[in-house]
Amino acid sequence: MQKLSAPKVALIAAAASLAVLSLAACASTATPSASPSITESPTPTVEPMTPAEAKAAYAKIAKLSCNTAQNEGVVETGDDFTLVMVNKADGYKDFSAAYFSPPSTYELIWELDGITACSDYYTISMAEEAGQEAAIDVTFDETDSSYTTFEDFGEFGTSNLKFQIKDGMLHSFESLDPENPRSSTIRYGKITEADRQILITAVDNYLAER
């Protein structure tokens, strides 16, 4: 390899220095690129419904809720109670639904209308079979996509509930009756051993008293 003379080394070093200075100058004068702007997604618009439209939409929700509850089981939990229904195949001694209120109240549930997930669908389907309109008033609130139902049971009082919907099914509700304030959440499937024990205890207590 040819050895560079001292003058050539000096020239090369000088050229390298000039190249570095030139790059530094370019870097200092370059205009930084603008950051991409973030465009917010528009909030989906929920259209209002007439009472008739709300009732028709709610009927579909009620049907899906009840079918899911019957196929997968359901657990309804309030401040002072837990209600459990398992599917028929998982029933205990031919029973499938029960209610527990601490500390020691266990009761069997005999009809679907005792299950919130099925109560309104039961009413709607029975009315349809009779060729009548179900006596349930339904309104829809587009601000939170909730449905409010009202039923008049005559001497037995009224029911006025506001439902929140999730995955197209009844998810939770609160009573709008100031004399009967209550709320509950509804869980479909995933029946735990503790849930099932409520049914077992209620059945065993009932059979022991017969």
Characterise the protein shown here:
By secondary structure, the chain is α+β, with helices and mostly antiparallel strands. It is built from 4 helices and 9 strands. It has a 9-stranded antiparallel sheet with strand order 4-3-2-1-9-8-7-6-5. α2 (51-72) crosses α3.
- According to DSSP, the number of beta strands is 9
Largest sheet: 9 strands, antiparallel
- Give the terminus-to-terminus CA distance: 110 Å
Kindly report the oligomeric state of this protein.
Answer: single chain
Q: What is the topology, as strand order, of the major beta sheet?
A: 4-3-2-1-9-8-7-6-5
SSE pattern, N- to C-terminal? HHEEEEHEEEEEH
What low-confidence regions span 5 or more consecutive residues with pLDDT below 50? Answer: 1-31
Structural class: alpha+beta
* Average pLDDT, all residues: 84
The rounded Rg comes to 34 Å
Helix content: 25-40%
The shape, in one word, is globular
Strand content range: 15-25%
Tally of individual helices: 4
Write a brief caption for the model.
The chain is α+β, with helices and mostly antiparallel strands. It is built from four helices and nine strands, in the order H-H-E-E-E-E-H-E-E-E-E-E-H.
